[in-house]
Amino acid sequence: MYETQDAELYTRSHTIRLYQPEDFEGMRKAGRLVAEALDMIGEHVKPGVTTGELDDLVRQFTLDNGGLPACLGYKGYTKTTCISINHVVCHGIPGDKALKDGDIVNIDHTVIVDGWHGDSSRMYAVGEINTRAKKLIDVTYEALDIGLKQVKPGNTFGDIGFAIQKYVEAQRMSVVRDFCGHGIGRVFHDNPNVLHFGRRGEGAVLKPGMFFTVEPMVNLGKPAVKVLSDGWTAVTRDKSLSSQCEHSVGVTEDGLEIFTASPKGLFRPVFS
Ligand code: MF3
Ligand code: CO
Ligand code: CO
């Protein structure tokens, strides 16, 4: 996530890089590796494992498969992944904390392959989670799908944000405003800011060759967040549960390509 700022500047079309058809292949490789890492980690997400252990597994897997962890060293960040549990909205720092039955967990990972960035995050359930938590996760994934349906040439970034916000609020949940998606490619966090709220028709017009993330954060309670004294961990102010999922995508002539789709079809958790 990028901190939402200077929305004016970042919504002007001419500030958004346009990539060439051959650049999609670079993004495919980076996107596939991050998706494989998030596939791999799923079976390790269970009660008792620490977030630091999960981070180590993701780092090792990434390096073993020819990727570099993009977050490691980024703006002073010292871990490979962000792992955000329950009321942590994003940027949870892996460490000694052990997962427990009933937790909901987001793992956000970014890799660099041949200079291209692949950025994705998913939700994982630890053991058995309650009905409200399942509903929150379902709404978050629906929100991402609904946002991605707006990704095609001629639509605007405002169309994406509007669709997400409208759906989430109709479920009586809220969209976080303080963090947003971002342009991606050879740069990790590039123009534009991709807001998960907004108005139809506003913002820059989508064009083939734009690469960006969509990564809505949805809260069961109010949208307000605060960042803890570690300078990273963002939590809901009202301590309500929060959930997020993220894809990196490219705009094509007639729609989009999702670079971070799961090879094993594990992107969206299914609850029995
Ligand atoms: N992967 C996050 C995103 O979706 C960014 C994390 S930056 C870090 O943009 F430094 F916190 F790792
Ligand atoms: Co991102
Ligand atoms: Co991310």
From TrEMBL:
Residues 25-253 form the Peptidase M24 domain. One of its GO terms (biological process) is proteolysis. Its cofactor is Co(2+); Zn(2+); Mn(2+); Fe(2+). GO terms for molecular function: initiator methionyl aminopeptidase activity; metal ion binding; metalloaminopeptidase activity. Its EC number is 3.4.11.18. A divalent metal cation 2 binds at D119, H182, E215, E246. One of its GO terms (cellular component) is cytosol. A divalent metal cation 1 binds at D108, D119, E246. Substrate binds at H91, H189. The keyword Cytoplasm does not apply. InterPro entries: Creatinase/aminopeptidase-like, Pept_M24, Pept_M24_MAP, Pept_M24A_MAP1. Binds 2 divalent metal cations per subunit. Has a high-affinity and a low affinity metal-binding site. The true nature of the physiological cofactor is under debate. The enzyme is active with cobalt, zinc, manganese or divalent iron ions. Most likely, methionine aminopeptidases function as mononuclear Fe(2+)-metalloproteases under physiological conditions, and the catalytically relevant metal-binding site has been assigned to the histidine-containing high-affinity site. It catalyses: Release of N-terminal amino acids, preferentially methionine, from peptides and arylamides. Removes the N-terminal methionine from nascent proteins. The N-terminal methionine is often cleaved when the second residue in the primary sequence is small and uncharged (Met-Ala-, Cys, Gly, Pro, Ser, Thr, or Val). Requires deformylation of the N(alpha)-formylated initiator methionine before it can be hydrolyzed. PANTHER family: METHIONINE AMINOPEPTIDASE. Monomer. This is Methionine aminopeptidase. It comes from Brevundimonas abyssalis TAR-001. The gene is map.
